[in-house]
Amino acid sequence: MTLLRAKRPDALAPGLPADLVPEALARIELLEVEDVPGGVVLLPGTAAFLDPLPADRWAVVTSATRRLAEARLSEVGIRPKTLVSADDVTCGKPDPEPYLLAARELGVDPARCVVFEDAPAGLQAGRAAGMTTVALATTHEASELDADLVVKDLSALSALVTAGGVEISTRG
């Protein structure tokens, strides 16, 4: 949904009159939100990884609209204190703006942040923000993902909360 912030709305729907694009996008969002119940599953390891983390030490950064992101996250029981959506930024991934905004909202130096991403554009955004990147090979092949670390999913990782931050390590 980063395309919602495109400078040329006509590029979103070729042949559709520009004055109809907002209505069309709103309809698409509504259909996606209505499709959420029963259609979203939590990826392996996600709950176990997030549960021990204090709410003020992590954020969800998504290219979805806030409405769609909140519906999807609620469906799987994830309620982030900090959520950055397409509605919050001018430039979406692969631009670093979404991740830099999340770091600012968390009050953390971007160099101390770790981005967990399943898409090349998100990994590019994380690197451009000066953050460590961890690729989750859930929607792309590992060979397609350029990151500091590539894992199958969050079940391959563990997090330990310390006074100085969060230590992340691979399991086994």
Topology:
Blueprint: H1 21-34, H2 46-50, E1 59-61, H3 66-75, E2 82-84, H4 97-106, E3 114-117, H5 120-128, E4 132-136, E5 149-151, E6 157-162, E7 165-170
Parallel strand pairs: 1-2, 3-4, 4-5
Antiparallel strand pairs: 6-7
Could you characterize what this model shows?
Strands 3-4-5 form a three-stranded parallel β-sheet, covered by helices on one side. It is of the alpha/beta class. The protein has helices spanning 21-34, 46-50, 66-75, 97-106, 120-128; strands spanning 59-61, 82-84, 114-117, 132-136, 149-151, 157-162, 165-170.
**Count of DSSP helices?**
5
* First-residue to last-residue Cα separation: 36 Å
Relative strand content: 15-25%
What is the residue-averaged pLDDT?
Answer: 86
Q: Any idea what the shape is? A: globular
Largest sheet: 3 strands, parallel
Biggest sheet: strands side by side, in what order? 3-4-5
Q: Tell me the series of helices and strands, N- to C-terminal.
A: HHEHEHEHEEEE
Q: What would you report as the Rg, rounded to the nearest angstrom?
A: 17 Å
pLDDT below 50 for ≥5 consecutive residues: which ranges?
1-11
Number of DSSP strand runs: 7
Helices and strands: which structural class?
alpha/beta
Helix content: 25-40%
